[in-house]
Structure formats: C-alpha cells, structure tokens
Design a protein that fits this description.
The chain has 8 helices and 8 strands. The chain has about 250 residues and is an alpha+beta fold. The longest helix has 22 residues, at about 100-125.
C-alpha cells in the first residue's frame, strides 16, 4: 500500500509590514472508528442520568477523615479515569502525584498551614473571610496527615522535544476538567475528598521535587470519612439558577 503523503498546510505569518506564506509538512491524522456505547431506550438514558446525578449530589467536601487504609487500586483507577479528560491539542498536561508517606504528608501539612496562616491573618479580605465563616475553616489542616492519601495535581505548562520548548495549549482548562472527573471517579468509588489550594503552592513543587514546568494546581486529600464527620449545611443552586436555554 502506498504511503499517504504528509498533510501540507499553508501558514500565514507577518513580519513587520510584510506578509509571507510558507508550507509545513505536518503529520497526517490517524483516524479510527468511534467506539460508542449507544443507549437506544430513552427511559434508560434518563434513568442513568438521574442515578448519576443523585450519586454525585451526595458528594461533599470532607474535612474529617478516618485513617482507614484505602486500596491503591481505587486511586489508580480514578486517576486513569481523570486521564480520559479532553485536553488542548491532546497534550494531556497533567501529572498526578500520590502521597502516602507519613513524613512527606507531615512536611506538606506544615508548609500548607504556614501559608494558610498568612492568608487567614494577613492576605484575605474581610469579604473573603466572611464567605468562609459558614464553612468553619481556618489555617489548621489536620486532614493533610490523617487522610491515607494526598493526590497533588500538577499542570504541565510546557514540554521539550528535540531541544525545543513548547507551551501546552489550554492547559488550565484541560487540567480543570480532569480534576472534575477525578473527583467524580473518587466519589463513585466510595471515597471522600477535599479540594485544597493553599496559596502560594510552590512548596509542593519543592517538597515533591517536581520540575519547573509542573505547576501545582490542587491538593486533594482522599480517604473514608470519619464516623463522626460533619459538613456545613449548604444548599446548591437550583436548575433554574444555573441553566439557560436560548
């Protein structure tokens, strides 16, 4: 079979007031048939959608954890699920660092609480603190040591190939989508989570010895809730408040 020619694309570039055209040989798309599970019965579609919603509607941010161990396979499968997220130019700009070691968790808690103290006592505005008050949060983060696992998600902001550096495209949006899918997958597996974003988060880069192109995005404690776990009595917005049809 004859080899297909490379895709030739005309690129327009501007150099001061001059316009020139050049061609680049790009790899040709490698397309395969779509694998898609069709649900022919609309009532079954609706049931699955409603069951999924009801399950995720029970998801809460949990700060009271049991130290009960979690099978690593649950963590691995959830991260695999997160890795199916769409990403800009399919560059998959995420790294999931799983921390179980007690000493590393201690260092992370110590550094996080230091930054959180600065935030709660110096950085945050009165309006921000008022918003946080109903949640009962402060600079103390014992869950960072109690939860059996911490998942630190890093955003890869650039890559290097053949000695050339290239940015990742729409990495912020891509990692955000992946984190949402990760939280859903962990909840679906019967695990509790919390999204923790101490600011700044550079200490995570240092403690976990990550390269400069991996930027901390979010820190997620994962485990089983404590038997006496409590959560704020919050209300979610109604469908009318979050959706518009035009």
């Amino acid at each position: 079979m004859a080899k297909k020619p490379a895709l030739t694309v005309e690129i327009r570039t501007r150099n001061r007031h001059k316009t020139k055209f050049m061609t680049k040989d790009f790899p040709q798309p490698d397309l395969i048939p779509l694998e898609f599970r069709k649900i022919e019965n609309e009532s079954e579609q609706l049931k699955r959608a409603e069951d999924f919603y009801k399950n995720l509607n029970l998801r809460r941010t949990v700060r009271d954890y049991s130290d009960r161990d979690v099978p690593i396979e649950l963590i691995e499968t959830a991260i695999l699920t997160a890795g199916t997220a769409p990403s800009g130019a399919h560059m998959q700009p995420w790294r999931f660092v799983v921390v179980k070691d007690a000493e590393i968790k201690r260092k992370i808690r110590e550094a996080a609480e230091k930054e959180e103290y600065e935030s709660y006592h110096k950085r945050m505005s009165e309006k921000w603190l008022r918003r946080l008050a109903p949640l009962g949060t402060d600079e103390n983060k014992p869950f960072l040591e109690i939860a059996p696992y911490l998942i630190i998600v890093f955003r890869i902001n650039s890559i290097e190939e053949d000695g050339e550096k290239e940015p990742t495209y729409y990495s912020q949006e891509s990692v955000g989508i992946a984190v949402g899918m990760l939280l859903a997958a962990l909840h679906n597996a019967g695990l509790a989570t919390l999204t923790h974003t101490p600011s700044p988060m550079r200490f995570l880069q240092e403690i976990l010895e990550r390269p400069k192109n991996e930027v901390p995005f979010v820190l997620i404690p994962v485990g089983y809730p404590a038997e006496d776990a409590m959560v704020p009595n919050l209300k979610r917005k109604t469908l009318d408040e979050i959706m518009q049809i035009v």
